[in-house]
Amino acid sequence: MSPNIPAHTLAVPLEPTDHGLGSEHARVTVIEYGDFECPSCKVAATTPKLLLERYPNRIRFVFRHFPLQEAHPHALGAAEASEAAAAQGKFWPMYDVLFQNQAHLKDKDLYRYAADLGLDMARYTAEMDDHIYLQKVREHIEGGRRSHIRATPSFFIDGVVQDISFGMKALHDAVAAAVGRSG
Predict the structure, then answer these.
(1) CB-side neighbour CA atoms (13 Å) of 85
(2) How many CB atoms lie within 10 A of CB 40?
(3) In the chain, beta strands by DSSP E
(4) 164: helix, coil or strand?
(5) Do residues 161 and 147 make contact, with C-beta atoms less than 8 angstroms apart?
(6) Any idea what the Cα angle at residue 142 is, between residues 131 and 88, rounded to 5°?
């Protein structure tokens, strides 16, 4: 762990390669570290759309990977598949499909989802076989560790961790407060 980074602070600031929804010029940024095989992350998967509907043009939502491989054996492959989809402009559709089909994340399932989304399957297969996006996923994991993440989902609002141990209402309330402060 990085001793110089307080336990409540995001270690890796927003990056151009992050997967985001909402205005790039929004004053409030919500970053989630998540795992496609995590049941709690599935519950939280509706959060981006709900927040963006409530605060159009006022927030930006970003998803970063934090697959908990010990507990979720298919999460890393799902993260790689989402990155392969992202390379073809389909990260968010793949995000939705992966959470909707969370119990079915084996390689053959991921391949089927990619085909259903209309991806170039020769490219998808080559990139998955060569683990082209594994380094990016590992960088997200390392950034999460440096930010003292231990569980998923973990959320940061404007770089400060949010406690959601009592439910997602806490996140919604914190976003409302941040939007109120931002004017």
Answers:
(1) 25
(2) 14
(3) 19-22, 28-34, 59-65, 154-157, 160-162
(4) coil
(5) yes
(6) 40
Hey, which residues does 9 pair with through a beta bridge?
Answer: 160
In whole angstroms, give the CA distance from residue 168 to residue 105. 25
Give the residue among 168, 151, 162 at the shortest CA–CA distance from 66. Answer: 151
**pTM of this prediction?**
0.94
Structure tokens at 115: 């085909």
Half-sphere exposure at residue 124, Cβ-oriented, CA atoms within 13 angstroms? 26
Read off the tokens for 38. 């995590």
Show pLDDT as tens, one digit a residue, over the chain (183 residues).
444 556 679 999 999 999 999 999 999 999 999 999 999 999 999 999 999 999 999 999 999 999 999 999 999 999 999 999 999 999 999 999 999 999 999 999 999 999 999 999 999 999 999 999 999 999 999 999 999 999 999 999 999 999 998 889 999 999 999 999 987
Residue with tokens 């307080």: 6
| DSSP secondary structure of 9-32 | B-SS---TTSEEEE-TT-SEEEEE
**What domains appear along the chain, each with residue ranges and CATH number?**
19-178 (3.40.30.10)
Nearest to 63 by CA among 113, 117, 114, 17: 17
38: left (phi over 0), alpha (psi -120 to 50) or beta: beta
